[in-house]
What we know:
By secondary structure, the protein is mainly alpha-helical. Helix content is 68%, strand content 0%. The radius of gyration is 19 Å and the shape is globular.
Amino acid sequence: MGLSWWTASHWLMLGLLLGFAIAHSGLAALRPWGEAKIGARLYRVLFALVSLPSAVILITYFFIHRYDGAQLWMVQGVEGVKPLVWGLSFVSFLFLYPATFNLVEVAAIAKPQVHLYETGIIRISRHPQMVGQVIWCIAHTLWIGTSFAVVTSLGLIAHHLFAVWHGDRRLAARYGESFETLRSRTSVIPFLAIAQGEQTLVWREFLRPAYLGVILFVFGFWWAHPWLMRVTGNIPW
């Protein structure tokens, strides 16, 4: 049988993931230089014009080809799996979108800035987007169970693990000793800093409108999920 299950879509997804990683991390690395040349707001717009279309292409291609390749397992009919997958997906979004806390900066209405803080979700993990992506990948790979889903998840996780190193390196270069102090009081692994006594959860820090926005977004996405599957299924890609 060989690798007959390894379809061309596996290679294309790996290429799309690599292209997105290079563009996203590359533009992040060039941020100081770019902001000095064209300003923080315009550079944020440029970053969005590259990153958002690339992300949409990735998500769309994943929707279309998620069942490509070998079916490694099928647990969709197993009792308890569906609520587990939905629950993990919900938690993943709470980690994935801490940037929405500064929407006026995300949209470049206010001057975008790099923030150095250790409150809220950063008490749990210094890199919440990595944690959210890993949880999302586990949930969706469990549900779909194909080689294509495994390849996609491994690629996404690899990029986010690189981003952990890359992000810490950029913050260390920018903030020096201040970041090293923060690094010593936080952890990449969720809840490790809390277990070590370096952090204590302060629940009132999570009682903010941004979390309500994320929750409403998640429920809206759940509602639109079947529609998105139908629409992307009609794209001849």
